[in-house]
Write a structure and sequence with these properties.
The chain has 185 residues and is mainly alpha-helical. The chain has 3 domains: 55 residues, no CATH class; 59 residues; 56 residues. Helix content is 58%, strand content 6%. The chain starts with a helix and ends with a helix. The structure holds zinc ion.
């Protein structure tokens, strides 16, 4: 099954790729060889990856200009702050402050999260965990909204709230967030 799916995407299964590699390569390790050389190749790789990740996780202060330019570019292309917030998990207040220029320095990790948002966030293909969305929906329901009403507000054709419990599209997460915001005191 998996092999077929990979082939369909133009990728070869790992066993096939590994077959013509010498021992002492990580690919062969992943394909199932646990000989000394292959195990060592894999542990070298893991060590290297941990080091890169530790370095990449640096979280000092950086100039917010790059993030600001990126947010503005995304906005021009139809990815608003709520979508950026839903995909990146950076708070709306920080996104606002960066975009307006009020905040001139941000944490490196925040910058990385913002820069990682692409215009793909516009589409329905991008999913985020549904927890925060459902919390807002529960709140709306407790305030007297009906599910049908919420579904309508989300642009559903039928008055049924069909949202997955585990993951929702960025688009729906952003819509629920906007709806919730609109009815906050
Ligand atoms: Zn081997």
């Amino acid at each position: 099954m998996i092999g077929a799916a990979l082939h369909a995407r133009g990728l070869r299964p790992i066993a096939e790729l590994a077959a013509d590699r010498p021992h002492g390569t990580r690919l062969r390790y992943l394909a199932g060889c646990k000989c000394f050389l292959c195990r060592r190749a894999n542990s070298d790789y893991e060590r290297h990856r941990r080091a890169v990740r530790a370095a990449g996780d640096w979280n000092g202060l950086v100039d917010a200009a790059a993030a600001r330019a990126h947010l503005r570019k995304l906005a021009r292309r139809g990815v608003g702050k709520r979508m950026v917030h839903a995909v990146s998990d950076v708070s709306l207040s920080v996104i606002d402050a960066v975009r307006s220029g009020r905040k001139t320095r941000i944490r490196a990790r925040t910058e990385r999260k913002i820069l990682a948002v692409t215009t793909a966030a516009r589409g329905d293909a991008v999913h985020v965990p549904a927890g925060p969305t459902w919390e807002r929906i529960e709140w709306l329901l407790s305030e007297g909204f009906t599910k049908a009403r919420i579904a309508r507000e989300l642009g559903a054709k039928r008055p049924a709230l069909q949202l997955n419990r585990h993951r929702v599209t960025v688009r729906n997460a952003a819509k629920v967030e906007a709806l919730w915001k609109r009815y906050q005191a």
